[in-house]
């Protein structure tokens, strides 16, 4: 990419922000015990404010409102592969000032262009033409997904580019392990891992843009609706390549924000009655799903999964490469997202540890992208949060403590469940736990290597283990719907694998041979140490060798360590 058109980067999240986070760890560690985070003087009643809280932190509501507005001013353009960036931007700027833009590669080159003003998008769309195609069967649905053609040269095909455009995929585990092995400490490795995998600023913008494009489809029926991303796309724990969870929010239209009637005459909408809220949600998703499948350009392979506990439609958005799950009436999940985001923003070690544990779990097959008896990323994140609450002193507060700190504007009851917790970071007292991310990782493995899963349940609301209320191998209380177990799907074999892997990693973490930085490389192969060694294929707990070539790279010393561990377990 030409230097003059380097990709714009914000510092809210993305590569580069981890270093900033670590500086915050440092500042944080020097604060007094029990002191409050420097108070951000915002009115508690203004929940959706966009005022920056301390250290530039914003509430998820504020971030979402800002991002959604940016996405509305943006277009997604498929470009031909030899596009000259300067010429392209000059051509578009006829419609108005361009605020930000970036190019990315996904089986061809795409550009995300954010105009400074909404009118520019309208002007651009006004000037766009319907393609001349041989078939007459095109669906005349105009959207902000466009294609750039050069009629002079006849160039229109979008092949992979020879120019530099960012890929939107995660680096391979082997690449990351090489990078980790070049670091000088475990803490540096943890930071490096997070930086390698976290969603980039551009990827987050693209996620909001896809939501905005889909909103335009749903707006055909519900003009005032919004589509908001939730889950790992926005909670701060998203890894490049993670799915895009979307929530069709009709609250602004339906009775959720109903006005109190005033005396005298008034007009009401006549509305159709559904059989139940669930049936209405299923019908809405079914109809919107049909529109997405048949009208929305770029959306393919739609499946309606309407009988799930949380009905959804799943499809792929080809230009972005995102696997999308669209839900409606899923406000509890939005609340869980907000809670996870808050915990991640409270202390930078939370994100570092969640990222590292998620990556460790994925590498060892503890989690999977395929639904099944595996531990989910959400469950795993709750396990990390619980572990951090159990530190002495605790690193993060319990959910009950966050509820007790809530102001009147934070009150939230969804379907009878109390989802109240404080939204203002400034009101949350933190304690002076000074453990480093590397120490915490080791303690995490120790903690779960011997956790009494057979008797106890994990509960981040109380921050202490509770007696298991039901027979399930793994019981993790749903933070808001407290009678539910978020890990109900996990079977005994999967839990056993997880425990055995924790035991193995806890043991490896104590081996100075494995944990000592290896500065010298042998030939071109770096020796994997520290976190990279923990990500090597495991041989315990019936964990199969996943890939022969990966196994082949285990260093001799590590193999002998694992063999001795194996014999120790057998004894
Ligand atoms: P990945 O997609 O695996 O990266 O993580 P994710 O956090 O996005 O998980 P997932 O896509 O499975 O779910 C999206 C969001 O829905 C989560 O972040 C939670 O906020 C919520 N969620 C998922 N599973 C549960 C559950 O069992 N109970 C509750 N209350 N919320 C859930
Ligand atoms: Mg997700």
TrEMBL record:
Q: Domain (PAP-associated): give its ranges.
A: 438-482
Needed co-factor(s): Mg(2+); Mn(2+)
Transferase as UniProt keyword: yes
> Molecular function (GO) terms listed?
metal ion binding; poly(A) RNA polymerase activity
Task: Report the InterPro entries cross-referenced here.
Answer: MTPAP-like_central, NT_sf, PAP_assoc, RL
Q: Name one GO biological process term.
A: RNA 3'-end processing
SUPFAM superfamilies in UniProt: Nucleotidyltransferase, PAP/OAS1 substrate-binding domain
Please name one Pfam family that this protein belongs to. Answer: PAP_assoc
Listed GO cellular component terms? mitochondrion
Gene3D superfamilies the record matches: 1.10.1410.10, Beta Polymerase, domain 2 (3.30.460.10)
**What keywords tag this UniProt record?**
Magnesium, Metal-binding, Transferase
Any idea where the RL domain is? 59-128
Tell me where in this chain the Poly(A) RNA polymerase mitochondrial-like central palm domain is found: 186-344
Name it.
Putative poly(A) RNA polymerase mitochondrial isoform 2
